[in-house]
Write a structure and sequence with these properties.
158 residues, alpha+beta, Beta-Lactamase, 5 helices, 6 strands, globular
């Protein structure tokens, strides 16, 4: 869920191999550099998004992090148009995340759901075309998302 300029985890299902194992229910992350945050922002009109982006401490968490409010607004608008968002290593080096909105009966975004994985070759940004099949009608298909992430992120040999 979105609270101010942050997202808050209200449910988290961990896997055996995860990048950031300190996240749990109640954890907060900045909305501007997370796929869930951008999807949640996309559920708001631009008139509400712009002040939130301007209020965010837009710091470069990695060399890939977007920190320009106008560029971020464009990414939020893109997420709104396509119904999903892919963020490639903006929160943490090596972490790729894809999110889609959870909407109520009125079509209002009330939460977001995501899937993430390791990105050893920085190729996930090119997966956008395949991502449409993952997030059809604004609902994340976890089986398709897993196939997509596995196609751009080779399984770990660890």
């Amino acid at each position: 869920m979105l609270e101010g300029t942050d997202i808050i985890y209200v449910l988290r299902v961990s896997t055996r191999k995860i990048m950031r194992n300190t996240l749990g229910v109640g954890s907060r992350l900045p909305a501007y550099c997370t796929s869930m945050g951008r999807v949640l922002l996309a559920g708001l009109p631009d008139e509400e998004v712009v002040p939130l982006l301007r209020a965010s401490p837009l710091e470069a968490r990695t060399r890939h992090t977007l920190t320009d409010a106008d560029a971020l607004l464009a990414k939020v608008q893109q997420a709104r148009r396509q119904g999903w968002c892919l963020v490639n290593q903006e929160l943490e080096e090596g972490l790729v995340s894809m999110a889609a909105p959870v909407v109520n009966r009125a079509g209002r975004t009330i939460a977001a759901i995501n899937i993430s994985g390791r990105e050893p070759h920085a190729a996930a940004a090119d997966a956008g075309g395949d991502a449409a099949a993952v997030a059809g009608d604004g609902a994340l298909d976890f089986a398709a998302a897993g196939r997509l992430l596995n196609s751009v992120i080779p399984p770990s040999r660890e």
